[in-house]
Amino acid sequence: MTLLRFYRSTIGKKLIMAVSGIIGIIFLILHMVGNLQIFVGPDRINDYARFLHGPAAEVVLAQRVVLVVALVLHVWMAWQLTRINRAARPQAYTRREPQVTTLASRTLRWGGVFLLVFIVLHILHFTTLDLDPTFVELDVFGNALKAFDSVWMVGFYTVAMLLLGFHLFHGIWSSGRTLGVSPPSRAPLQRRIALGLALIIAIGFAAVPLAVWFGVVP
Fold it and tell me: How many domains does the chain have?
């Protein structure tokens, strides 16, 4: 019953959302580091792919299970918190004094929906290889060259990474406040950390399609 009360409470939902978000961030950092090996050359990135599907296959499978659970919880908590906020908002609330907002907070909901669609398409594109029959399994380098030979695909991935950066900035900062590691301040360190980490991850991911398009890779 205690766990049920925790889940039903607003703070419980926020904590679940924060922890599931942190799990996602850890995965993004690891995934980004793996992707950036494409700059070393085809042998390096393809050997890395073979390692993930060979000796590390069981670890990858466990990681995917954790990620799926974290993603479902994150989206579910976001949806429930949105409903709670709307239900608690009185009609007169629409006449409240303007509050300071950021582009990241204003794009949080629809940006999150876009990213959810992107995740599904990205999996179908590079993991299951269903979107392009010419892709070769475990040939990550060759598949990336084919995929990002299209300006539309490069644009789609770049926009997704831009929205990811906004989402991460707001999410990391708000998670720090939810978990109590970022006390109120006019110039909170947590905000600067959130901005730096969001920029590193977004630029790190966007670098691959942009580098392929502009001929930096190969």
Answer: 1
